[in-house]
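User
Here is a favour to ask of a fellow structure person. I am asking you to supply a protein in sequence and structure-token form. Please set it down just below, with no commentary around it:

Assistant
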Amino acid sequence: MINNKKIIVVLPAYNAAKTLQKTFEEIPFEVVDDVIITDDFSKDNTITIAKNLGINHILSHNRNKGYGANQKTCYKKALELNADIIVMLHPDYQYTPKLIPAMCTLVANNLYDVVLGSRILSKGALQGGMPLYKYVSNRVLTFIQNVLMNQKISEYHTGYRCFDARLLQKIDFENNSDDFVFDNEILAQCCFLKARIGEISCPAKYFEEASSINFLRSVTYGLGVVRVAVSYLLQKTRLGSFSLFKNL
């Protein structure tokens, strides 16, 4: 705990057998109270490794539902366990768990409602091996979103996020996409609620075992990101109405 806040780390996993142990062993349990892993019908022995590590809450899908659906299961369980702060960390060891205390401290001290681990602040992305085309597309999409959504966020596409649980309780994330654009949708919903969003510089590692989507799925994701940003603008200006921002 930090400031008597219950901290739960959620691990949305898919074929994470080669990296799960390294990720789990770096989690700072001096502040983290519990861990949840959701396996999205992996083809490897992710669940076996999770059991061997002694993870308390191991959830599994009976079919591959998608990255967004995986997060939904994680967040729902964390809220059921009465988490005060929820950290979403990829178990592919691309992001270092060592930043969890810093991210959670910012939320626990009521400075921010959301803290993002940004690969773009400093030179973490390129130094860590992010492919140039992904870096360029990241910067272009982030620029478009900042303009359309009137924000100043360095990166909308990080998979390392720390939430005040009270904020997630205000968002109907169950109706968001089951695919990768879920990340973008939930961040747009946070912006719509005028949540206080902070960022911390995060080094990132790109290697063979780290998860990555292919070029075609990257294009699909990029189009989804633009759709979310345009929907946000139209909703804010009352020129349109979208289910993504319903009841917010």
Notes: The first strand starts at residue 7 and ends at 13. The radius of gyration is 17 Å.
